Amino acid sequence: MSSTEPLSRARIAPRHRLRDTLVLAGLFALVLAGLAALAAATGWEETLAQIARLHFWQFGVLLALSLVNYLGRGLRWHLFARHLGLDLRLGASLRHFLGGFAMSVTPGRLGELVRMRWIGRETGWRFARTAPLMLVDRASDLAAMGVLLGAALAFSASGIAFGLPVTLLALAGAVIATRPALLVGLADLGHRLTGRFARLFASLRRAARSLKAFSSPGVMGLAGLLGLAGWFAEGYAFHLLLMWMGADIGVAKAVAIFIFSGLAGGLTGAPGGVGGAEAAMVALLSLEGVPLEASIPATAIIRVTTLWFAIAIGFAIFPIAEKLSLRHAHAVENR
User: Fold this and answer.
1) Got the DSSP string for 282-321?
2) Percent of the chain surpassing pLDDT 70
3) What's the predicted TM-score (pTM) here?
4) Rounded-to-integer distance, Cα 140 and Cα 9, Å
5) Considering only CA atoms, which of 257, 264, 306 is closest in space to residue 69?
């Protein structure tokens, strides 16, 4: 590495961070503006009265349940990393996983691939070797959310329009992403159809074959439990919030609406599902008879204490992860 490269990185990084911060602020402002418009249409007094019913300790409970989700999935990330062969401590895995939340509202959450950069700097592993970690983690989230949504719909008194198709899509995505032979076949098919991008499809085949490291029933069983516990914790937080606001629709229905809204928002392709998830949540709560003066603040609060809380944690840890990974990379270069 040349002596000018670290300097150029230092100049570029602040610009990227400023751009990402402005994008996040813009998205957050748009969502708040939309919810504020709905609140104004229904009457500010009723909306503010619902928010005033909450105490600080209740916000603490909501944030604590979100932390259960983040830490549970962080432990799952570490489990996958170790089975892939990465010699990383739990602290490093949690740093990578939580720091990646800063990029959660990039299209398709592709920005979270920054975790692979940090791992590459600290271990020397190339992206092709670590890509299965991201793939199996995303597939595990889809599987956990699909199972939870299906179970919640089964136990709730009424269904959700398109609930079954979304559940099946989530489970299908999880199955495809964790079947090495199927992914290799899809990569071969893509290469034959396009006749191009040979190196890309070769990398995809190598990454797919690496998924065999996670095929153990014990690994996938423990990973599944961590994912289910984490996502249920956030769904249960939504139930508590609605109950505190006097709009108790039952645990099963609250979990179903929370999970469905998250998946539906992701299907829109919007960064972090922003906009789509909130719209789905307000609409579904309205169908359950929850008035707008309760559904709007409930939606705003649960999204702040889940998605935006995760992003805040990510922004706090991101510079630490970046600094430590660069320190590891420089240490290796200077040996």
Assistant:
1) HHHHHHTT--HHHHHHHHHHHHIIIIIHHHHHHHHHHHHH
2) 73
3) 0.78
4) 34
5) 306
Residue 113 pLDDT:
82
> Average pLDDT of 52-64?
91
Q: Is 331 in contact with 124 (CB distance < 8 Å)?
A: no
User: Which pLDDT band, with edges at 50, 70 and 90, does 174 fall under?
Assistant: low
Give the pLDDT confidence of 197-255 residue by residue, as tens digits.
Answer: 777 777 777 767 777 777 777 888 899 899 999 999 999 999 999 999 989 999 999 99
> In terms of DSSP H, where are the helices of the chain?
5-42, 44-52, 56-84, 90-99, 114-123, 127-155, 163-177, 180-194, 198-210, 217-244, 251-267, 276-287, 292-303, 309-333
* Residue-number span of the structural domain to which 96 is assigned: 5-333
Three-state secondary-structure class, residue 77? helix
262, 66 Cβ separation under 8 angstroms? no
Q: What is the CA radius of gyration of the chain?
A: 21
Instruction: Give the Cα-Cα-Cα angle 34, 279, 60 (nearest 5 degrees).
Output: 80
Residues whose CB falls within 8 Å of the CB of residue 270, separated by 6 or more in sequence, listed in order: 107, 276
Q: How many domains, the chain?
A: 1
Read off the pLDDT of residues 270-281 as tens digits, 9 standing for 90 and up: 666 677 788 889
Name the nearest CA neighbour of 66 among 278, 234, 308. 234
Longest CA pairwise span in the chain (Å):
66
Is the Cβ–Cβ distance between 55 and 302 less than 8 Å?
Answer: no
The Cα–Cα gap between 331 and 263 comes to 42
The answer to whether the beta carbons of residues 128 and 200 sit under 8 Å apart is no
